[in-house]
Specification:
- This protein is mainly alpha-helical.
- The chain has helices at residues 9-28, 31-47, 58-79, 84-88, 108-128, 133-144, 149-156, 160-182.
Length: 184
């Protein structure tokens, strides 16, 4: 299902450039490289806009393109026998960047897996935002904050069976949302 979208390139850049640059900086910590890859992302997106099938939000599509650009950059760096950790994940000699914590045996596969996991978490959080406010709080307390069921019931003034119903229904809503996002 290909569509002809009528998107203003200037508006596309205005709407998404700050987010994409911020996203790239969390992976690269090199502002010039991040800007270049974001620019390449927009060029690719605009030349392939007719292939955007609208199965996801345009920001998700752009982020996916940017991820591929980052991974391609690492691949090129590896083929030149450079150390991607020192080249791309240290800023002015600083240590302790996220890739350093993966250990010396970090491979491109582990980097791709990490990015994929981060995308999944982002998509999950978008779906969580669609839950009713009370459900969001219960789900966050149970699964993110790992509060006991008793504490959650006391905090939200609900019964244990009501807690179970909320959690069950929230899981169903999240599953449906993620299936739509992933087009399953």
């Amino acid at each position: 299902m290909r569509t002809n979208l009528n998107i203003d390139p200037g508006a596309l850049v205005d709407d998404h450039s700050d987010y994409l640059l911020s996203f790239a900086m969390t992976k690269l910590e090199d502002i010039d490289l991040a800007k270049d890859l974001v620019q390449d992302t927009f060029v690719s997106a605009l030349t392939k806009l007719d292939t955007f099938e609208q199965r996801s939000k345009i920001r998700t599509w752009l982020t996916s393109i940017l991820n591929r650009k980052i991974i391609d950059h690492w691949r090129k760096a590896e083929t030149r026998y450079t150390d991607p950790v020192s080249s791309f994940f240290k800023s002015q000699g600083k240590k302790g960047c996220w890739l350093d914590t993966m250990g010396k045996n970090a491979t491109l596969k582990t980097i791709e897996d990490t990015i994929s996991e981060e995308e999944t978490v982002e998509e999950l959080m978008v779906c969580v935002e669609k839950l009713p406010i009370k459900w969001r709080g219960v789900v966050a307390a149970k699964y993110l904050d790992e509060h006991s069921s008793e504490d959650i019931c006391n905090e939200y003034d609900i019964t244990p069976s009501n807690l179970w119903v909320i959690v069950h229904r929230a899981k169903l809503v999240l599953r449906d949302c993620l299936q739509k996002t992933w087009n399953l």
